[in-house]
Amino acid sequence: MLTERPNTERKALAVNLDARRYGSFAEIGAGQEVVRWFFRVGGAAGTIAKSMSAYDMSVSDAIYGQCERYVCRQRLQDMLDHEHALNLERLRESRGDTTAFFAFADTVSARNFHGTNDCHGWMGIRFQAHPRDQDSQIILHVRMLDTENALQQEALGIVGVNLLYGAFFLNHEPDQLIESLLDNLSTRRIEIDMIEFSGIAFRHVDNRVMSLRLVQLGLSSAAMFSANGEVLQPSEVLYKKPILVERGSFRPLTNVNVDMIEAAKEKFQGESDVDANEVVSLAEITMKNLQANGDIDLRDFLARVDLLAASGMTVLISDYFEYYRLAAYLARYTKKKIGITMGAASLVELFDEKYYTKLDGGILESFGRLFKNDLKLYIYPLLDRKSGELTTVDNLKIAEEIRTLYRYLVDKGCIEQLDDYNPEHLGTFSREVLSQIQSGDPCWTEHVPAEVAALIQQRGFFGCPRAKAVKTVEKPRAAIAPLAVGNGMIPSSEVHSY
């Protein structure tokens, strides 16, 4: 935690008074809001080599090259590359021994006159931490939440100053740098839903952890990254796409997790209004799940993410414990169909009215929000291992007073049973697999994909003894026994633990 938080003016002045820092500002949209702070506080001649803005699209293309969109990551990267290269070309020989050069850029769509546009922007800095140093870079994406253009511009300027100050004075403490980005602001005005560190100053930074920090600190309600660890900006991945989500603990990823998403994907892609080639599948982990045992264990978090990556899954970390909030978040980016797959036990909890006491309209308000955008739930059956019976959509036990509501949603097609599942996986639950891993029972390998078993053993995840090579017991699929359980049915505390 920062012991002292300087205001925006003091931050801008500190940058101006640092004789090592010298560079350029290039800003598209929302005015010269960042560089204005450095002119305003004095001493700018020692910091600013150039300030420019290319509002006209043709002019922008002439400088930075053609781009499909002008408020996008690629345009920002082109700006940073171009401006920083010019600084080095023009100034490195004359003052490179004593100067750490930088280029700051942003491309922003602030509120238009009619108030019809998406108010967001990309912002970044390419810089040398020390004179003659290799380059480092920070880029981020912001959503501006103020309802007035002038207020959005003001907030943008403050974030920009925070970014420059953080890059120069906090680059050795990336956690503090992230925490400082909304100094003198609040999350009611700005949301930062993507950040990426790269270069020599951040060679030890894991951007997946930094994405988690955004959500943990409340700078964003969700963060996303790909199977190869690349940080993703949600709107660029989800924009106008049909979306399918599986929520889970993934501790570890099991065969039933994979079976559930594959069975749901087959149903989802078969919907008449879904283009199978455009579907985006997400594995979502909530902050509530990550904090189930108190503080977040980063090693545990990265183990889960690595296992999902090994299976090629895109990961969403969210602070949306309530499903209707998750649905609203996804609907922000697409008008196409949204699907959520869950186990039958999770569906039972979804209809538990105790979760909706904070809503004026209770469970009716919750479901009104959840299903208003043509969202559909795909339900995976639950096996009672004592009786051998399956809990499905048709025989789900629902409180009498809301049974009519439940039947209405089923009849309307909002809740659909998955039927193309593998019955051999029904006896698998993540928490029991985890217990087997930790107790040294080798049978756990039967309940996870081969690549997941290999990674757990190679890296010693979840307390598993490290092994140089993975050797799993090959058995006919029908011979795989269900995990032992005391009372047959999995208790409600494990409904998200497939």
| Main pleated-sheet profile | 8 strands, mixed
* Total beta strand runs: 16
Strand order of the largest sheet: 8-7-11-10-9-12-13-16
- Described by the principal axes of the CA atoms, the overall outline is globular
The end-to-end distance, rounded to whole angstroms, is 36 Å
Number of domains: 2
Provide the CATH superfamily of the largest domain.
CinA-like
Summed up, what is this model?
The protein has 17 helices and 16 strands. With 498 residues, it is α/β, with parallel strands linked by helices. It folds into 2 domains: 8-205, Maf protein (Alpha-Beta Complex); 237-383 and 390-421, HUPs (Rossmann fold, 3-Layer(aba) Sandwich), CATH 3.40.50.
3D structure, described in words:
By secondary structure, the protein is α/β, with parallel strands linked by helices. It folds into two domains: about 200 residues, CinA-like (Maf protein), CATH 3.90.950.20; about 180 residues, HUPs (Rossmann fold, 3-Layer(aba) Sandwich). Strands 8-7-11-10-9-12-13-16 form an eight-stranded mixed β-sheet, sandwiched between helices. It has a six-stranded mixed β-sheet with strand order 2-1-3-4-5-6, sandwiched between helices. α2 crosses α5 and α11 runs antiparallel to α17. The two termini are about 35 Å apart. The C terminus is likely disordered.
